[in-house]
Amino acid sequence: xxxxxxxxxxxxxxxxxxxxxxxxxxxxxxxxxxxxxxxxxxxxxxxxxxxxxxxxxxxxxxxxxxxxxxxxxxxxxxxxxxxxxxxxxxxxxxxxxxxxxxxxxxxxxxxxxxxxxxxxxxxxxxxxxxxxxxxxxxxxxxxxxxxxxxxxxxxxxxxxxxxxxxxxxxxxxxxxxxxxxxxxxxxxxxxxxxxxxxxxxxxxxxxxxxxxxxxxx
Length: 217
Ligand code: URA
Prior knowledge:
This protein is of the alpha/beta class. The chain has one domain (6-214): Rossmann fold, CATH 3.40.50. It is built from seven helices and 14 strands. Strands 1-11-9-7-4-5-6 form a seven-stranded mixed sheet, with helices on both faces. Strands 8-10-12 form a three-stranded parallel sheet. α2 (18-28) packs antiparallel against α3. The longest helix has 19 residues, at 34-52. It starts with 5 loop residues before the first helix and ends with a helix. The model has no long low-confidence stretch (mean pLDDT 96). The structure holds uracil. Uracil binds at residues 88, 141, 143, 200-202, 205, 208-210.
């Protein structure tokens, strides 16, 4: 078990709402079916979306109520982009989009070259005008942090206004790695687990998130 760098820990928003913790525990259970795992992930992702969008900018909008004119506040969902790291990140999209339906969606696919161990991009599709947008990168598991950091490095080439990272679970290794590569990117997570095992799985964790979402075990 390695310690978390205190500066890195300060960059982590731990979403400890009871509903989030309850659903996460149900997801961790090995007997959870694909169906219930996916449903819980959906529900949890929408709860996490509330936290990650907490500081979204609001615009004044003049509207008519049945009684008079007033100035209300509205967010411009179109300025937000959820970027899914394929494939497990796709499991988070429905939930976050149910909260911010106007948001755009990008996808990034990376694999690890077995010889160089470097992340290699195989897919990258983003909306236009990324310089005007705030990005939330989504991936259920921030484990080694290698693919997450590589994805953020690539996204920074698009010069977005801001980048946040949203996951369900992480561990000291993932937090430290992300902070070393991108100290400007806050992490939103429902739990910080104990450690990574030698195969890169989070312990106690929930297993392979992609397999559990898509039923490919
Ligand atoms: N990816 C997963 O799906 N699970 C882990 O525990 C680590 C990375």
